[in-house]
Write a structure and sequence with these properties.
The protein is mainly α and 144 residues long. It has one domain.
Length: 144
């Protein structure tokens, strides 16, 4: 698709948008914790706005990370046959599920539906860190 000189640029932008995506997924549950603990309507409304805006940026990061990742696969088609990539894509699928769950939680808060406890949200906030560790280790070490 692109010449080999494009690969470092594609890789760089893939990394930039992965960082953007993860930043949103790290911070959104923290906002939800603060939202859960807010008691006044003004603060709750402010958190709804912050969550909506952060999700918009997170969606853009996710879409562009996936697009640049797909472009990398087109540049390096041999990766498709490697086990580490299959494992990485499995973790990315879990990350997409987590992202969708974040959207659901933010919608529940926005529409004042029942939401998990602050304690549950604190544990939930650890999931993207575990996925990030797995993804980075697979990409760098390529164990299989």
């Amino acid at each position: 698709m692109f010449g080999p000189e494009a690969t470092p640029w594609i890789k760089a932008f893939h990394i930039v948008f992965v960082v953007t995506w993860f930043a949103g997924l790290f911070y959104l549950p923290r906002l939800l914790i603060y939202h859960r603990e807010a008691t006044d309507p003004v603060s709750q409304a402010r958190f709804v706005t912050m969550e909506r805006r952060l999700l918009a940026i997170t969606h853009v990061g996710a879409l562009l990370a996936l697009a640049f990742g797909a472009a990398l696969l087109m540049q390096e088609p041999g990766f498709v046959h490697q086990g580490w990539l299959h494992a990485k894509l499995g973790l990315v699928a879990l990350l997409l599920g987590y992202h969708g769950w974040c959207v659901k939680l933010a919608n529940d808060f926005r529409h004042e539906r029942p939401t998990p406890t602050s304690r549950w949200l604190r544990w939930y906030n650890e999931i993207p860190a575990a996925l990030l560790i797995g993804i980075v280790c697979l990409v760098v070490v390529k164990p299989f």
